[in-house]
Amino acid sequence: MALNVLIADDSATMRAVIAKALRLSGLQLDKVYEAPDGRGALEILESHEIHLVFTDLNMPGLNGEALLAAMRSRPESAGIPVVMVSSDGSAARMARCKAQGLAAYVRKPFTPESICQAAHGALRT
Asked: Model confidence over 67-90: pLDDT tens digits?
């Protein structure tokens, strides 16, 4: 099955880098959607079938932690694996995200291989 992936990050460059890494990952991708923040991500989740989400933690408006909480509170998105990509990996924030079912965390700066590993691992959970 080809996957639809959503990438939420306030940096267009970072979204492009993650998308490129995913295209090189060996995963069979259908569409890659992009959102500049958590609110935009929720709009995409409401109107498209998404199989995997990559999100930044620190974004204006609705951040990655709030996006994850919103996704988990909605039956239609509760089971979608989420990978957090951020330079902020404080233990308390990561513990809260893990408690909400975060599938994986990738620290910035990252390698394409770490994005690929996180995607494959998240899809197995």
From this structure: 999 999 999 999 999 999 998 878
Rounded Cα distance, 57 and 93, in Å: 9
The phi-psi region of residue 40 (left if phi > 0; otherwise alpha if psi is between -120 and 50; otherwise beta) is: alpha
Query: Which residues on adjacent β-strands are paired with residue 3?
Result: 29
**Phi/psi-derived region of residue 26, left when phi > 0, alpha when psi is between -120 and 50, beta in every other case:** left
Q: How far apart are CA 50 and CA 5, in angstroms?
A: 6
Contact 54, 18 (CB under 8 A): yes
C-alpha 42 chain-centroid distance:
12
CATH topology of domain 3-124: Rossmann fold (3.40.50)
Model pTM? 0.95
